[in-house]
Design a protein that fits this description.
Helices cover 28% and strands 20% of the residues. It has 5 helices and 8 strands; from the N terminus they run H-E-E-E-E-H-E-E-H-H-E-E-H. The strands form 4 sheets. A two-stranded antiparallel ribbon has the order 1-2. The protein has a two-stranded antiparallel ribbon with strand order 3-4. It has a two-stranded antiparallel sheet with strand order 5-6. A hairpin with a 5-residue loop joins strand 7 and strand 8. The longest helix is centred in the C-terminal third of the chain and has 19 residues. The protein is elongated, with a radius of gyration of 33 Å. The N and C termini lie far apart (137 Å). The mean pLDDT is 88.
Length: 175
């Protein structure tokens, strides 16, 4: 008896069976409805798909299948609609990791969007100091704080010295 030949559908067909129509995107730059991944989803909400002998994230597979080439490893795929389960190619854009983070709504993007320090000094090349941990410091504010500290230190050094009260005993007083 001959073995039963199993036909495996092409990846694009398998991919489409794992998607469903989702809601309209509320973002202006994302036309149409989202295509939501209905297959395996990890704990972060991203879909997974078996492609070319390995498991890849579904949104990366969507771009690879639509464009005919895999997304370069140095690029992230940004969900412009902000739905992690969306695999609509019109809502996905390969970008650098930095651009992807800055487009998000997390605390890193919020800090990067700040253009002035709390004292309203601009964060520009001339007025910005990069700390060892990568954060920005205002040069004008840091210099002002250093001047204040130095002034307070010099005031303490130049403080009047109170004379010691020496108690004189009669035998020690000059006659």
């Amino acid at each position: 008896m001959a073995p039963i030949a199993r036909t495996v559908p092409p990846p694009a067909e398998r991919f489409n069976t794992k998607t469903k129509r989702g809601p309209w995107s509320l973002r202006r730059d994302c036309p149409g409805t989202c295509r939501l991944w209905d297959g395996a989803i990890n704990e972060d909400g991203y879909g997974h798909f078996w492609l070319d002998g390995r498991t890849v994230k579904a949104h990366r597979a969507a771009v690879a299948l639509a464009d005919g080439a895999p997304v370069p490893a140095h690029l992230d795929v940004d969900h412009r609609c902000r739905r992690r389960a969306c695999v609509n190619r019109a809502h996905l854009e390969p970008v650098t990791h930095r651009e992807n983070v800055l487009r998000s709504s997390n605390h890193v993007a919020a800090r990067a969007a700040v253009t002035h320090c709390p004292a309203r000094h601009a964060y520009d090349d001339a007025n910005t100091i990069r700390a060892k941990n990568g954060t920005r410091k205002c040069r004008a504010c840091k210099n002002a704080a250093a001047r204040t500290r130095r002034a307070e230190a010099s005031e303490q050094q130049a403080a009047p010295v109170m004379p010691l009260h020496v108690h004189r005993t009669p035998e020690r007083t000059a006659a």
